Amino acid sequence: MTTVELAIRLLRDLDVDDLTLLSAGGRLDMVTAMNTGLQKHHALSPDHLKTTQASVTLKAPESVSLDVTNGLSTFTGWTPTAAQLYSTLRIDGDDDLDHRVISTTDLLDDYLGTTGTKAATLYHDSISFYQPIEKIVSNPKIDVGGGEIFHKHDSNWWDTFRTQRKRIGTPRFFCIEENAVNNGSDSVFSMRFDTMPDKNYRLRFDIQMSPQKVTFNDLVTPANLPVRDDHVESVLLPLCRKALFKSKLWRDKTTRAEVDDEALESSRSFELLAVTHIAPKGNRVGTPEGY
User: Fold this and answer.
1) 230 and 187, same structural domain?
2) 171: which of 67, 134, 178, 193 fits an S-S bond (Cβ 3.0–4.6 Å)?
3) Do residues 65 and 204 both lie within one domain?
4) How many domains does the chain have?
5) CA–CA distance, 281 with 13 (Å, rounded to integer)
6) Three-state secondary structure of 165-195
7) Does some domain include residue 228?
8) Structure pTM?
């Protein structure tokens, strides 16, 4: 089903009979209701409806040059790309600490070496993730050789790791670093790797996606809904109707209890009846080897 088809179905509850005649406020109500329904459907959905495979490359170290000043965390003379942000920078003359690039003009820590133009080595030990990626589902695997990089949970270990000179070689562990999205960061989170890569490493792993959003333009130019067709009438439509009920254009306010009950019943039924596994589960009971 498309966004326009869903909007036409939702329009039956409003005082407007033609989607093209819907006011700007009515379109805002419609888009808000559709996105609310999609987000609630996403939250109720089993993991296999949200998960896909990703591939990223940890690049080999590269040489850069930048101008730094003793006692300051700012730098000039080099503009990092988006892919270079949050990576580790080892600057000549400041041998006690590996720096981290946090913006196109800033390091995380003050530079304590001598002022001047310095050579540095950038290690791509961090990968930033952006919306609509929601979370990492599986440990990354190196495509050549098949080695697995494990998620290390020990916060004390990582605290020590962040404040010392790091080793270089084949990545062995990773942790997740939050990037304060609520403060305006473009990156949702980053994966930090230990050991820092000494060459190109191509990684594959599973990720979970957040729901796709409907826009004003999708009410004019149809876009496919990011929902299985058999979930539209039974789940998505009742959830969207409940959200749309708040609109001033809702025709019959006496239907509130009916709309609420239908949305609640659809959510409960979906949680109970949705397919949670799309392949046969392995039989873990068997005859021990040697018998």
Assistant:
1) no
2) 193
3) yes
4) 2
5) 43
6) CCCEECCCEEEEEECCHHHCCCEEEEEEEEC
7) yes
8) 0.80
Tokens standing for 198? 């000494």
- Rounded to whole angstroms, the Cα distance separating 244 from 38 reads 13
Residue 206 backbone class (left: φ over 0; alpha: ψ -120 to 50; beta: rest): beta
List pLDDT tens digits, range 67-99: 999 999 999 999 999 899 999 999 999 988 899
Length of the chain: 291
* Range(s) of the domain holding residue 217: 3-49+211-273
